[in-house]
Design goal:
heterodimer; A: 127 residues; mainly beta; B: mainly beta; four-stranded antiparallel β-sheet; globular
Chain lengths: 127, 105
């Protein structure tokens, strides 16, 4: 059973960089076909995808956040990480990491199937 | 950009009811749609992907249908543990719908 666990500071000051790590257990982050995503949820609101990384290091980010986001991977530790720079109060949210399945079938190429999620961690941006 | 809408935004139902939630896309998205269930304080849980494929371990009372611009999530007989918020998601674009909260009548 794959498990994901987010870790990192729960409080970040405005203009600083938010840093979170997701540790994967019960499976290898280097498994083919699986990408690793970050998703956030503002308090009482819907879900916003931030970006993903493959174990090779290739990334793809939400265009609305791309200028401030960096996602990296450490296969030796079975971890991937998120950095979000120049944060404001609008970045206060619960941040989730998730396994992101990509696959082909007769209908086409699918990506963004989030089949395992971390429990989420609340990050508050405040001075 | 594709927009997703869900209806209703909120519904009140009783245990045993048949519940249907609709997700509409502003343009055709074939079968590139997933459904998630989220309970308060918990991470979302994948229910359905590729519009109608039931995720392993999800009860068969959940089903998904549709293609193109209109999709439905149906719960055939609502159980107490099904009271939650449900989100649709367009696969490939990673866009989520605004959610439908299912509450106890």
């Amino acid at each position: 059973q794959v498990q994901l666990q987010e870790s990192g500071p729960g409080l970040v000051k405005p203009s600083q960089t938010l840093s979170l790590t997701c540790t994967v257990s019960g499976g290898s982050i280097s498994s083919g076909g699986y990408y690793w995503s970050w998703i956030r949820q503002h308090p009482g609101k819907g879900l916003e995808w931030i970006g993903y990384i493959y174990y090779s290091g290739s990334t793809y980010y939400n265009p609305s956040l791309k200028s401030r986001v960096t996602i990296s991977v450490d296969t030796s530790k079975n971890q991937f990480s998120l950095k979000l720079s120049s944060v404001t109060a609008a970045d206060t949210a619960v941040y989730y990491c998730a396994r992101d399945l990509h696959y082909y079938d007769s209908s086409g190429y699918y990506r963004g199937v989030f089949d395992y999620w971390g429990q989420g961690t609340l990050v508050t941006v405040s001075s | 950009d594709i927009q997703l809408t869900q209806s209703p935004s909120f519904l009140s139902a009783s245990v045993g009811d048949r519940v249907t939630i609709t997700c509409r896309a502003s343009q055709g998205i074939s079968s590139y749609l997933a459904w998630y269930q989220q309970k308060p304080g918990k991470a979302p849980k994948l229910l359905i992907y590729a519009a109608s494929t039931l995720q392993s371990g999800v009860p068969s009372r959940f089903s998904g249908s549709g293609s193109g611009t209109e999709f439905t999530l149906t719960i055939s007989s609502l159980q107490p543990e099904d009271f939650a918020t449900y989100y649709c998601q367009q696969l490939n674009s990673y866009l989520f719908g605004p959610g439908t909260k299912v509450d106890i009548k």
